[in-house]
Design a protein that fits this description.
single chain; 120 residues; mainly alpha
């Protein structure tokens, strides 16, 4: 029996690898976010206190990493499921990948735009 090769239109090695990397990033960054938001920063949660936390570059970095890793992880997982069941041809898989990349980049730009008052 021949071993199946992992081709790009059936998922790909890089997509598999980045799925695992983003999973680790999500776990670490989410733990950091939750510890500093709910354990260290105990107190009143309001617009001002969240703004004070976001004034630190570390919190902005963790939030952007969470946004990027979460977006990629979710859309890549969706891509894998859709390619397993409906997008079986190479042409349709490529179109799906392009559409999901555009959606992901739009979500990333929108999320960074929402954080922009604290970045600049």
């Amino acid at each position: 029996m021949k071993a199946e090769s992992v081709t790009s239109h059936r998922g790909g090695m890089w997509a598999w690898l980045f799925q695992r990397i983003t999973a680790v990033l999500l776990i670490v960054c989410l733990a950091i976010h939750l510890v500093f938001t709910h354990i260290v920063g105990i107190g009143d949660i309001s617009y001002d206190t969240i703004g004070d936390r976001l004034a630190h570059a570390g919190f902005i970095a963790v939030d952007i990493i969470l946004l990027a890793a979460g977006t990629f992880h979710a859309l890549n997982g969706l891509r894998m499921v859709l390619m397993d069941y409906w997008f079986t041809s190479r042409k349709r898989a490529l179109a799906l990948t392009v559409v999901l990349w555009v959606v992901g980049l739009a979500a990333l730009v929108y999320g960074i735009w929402a954080l922009w008052p604290w970045i600049s």
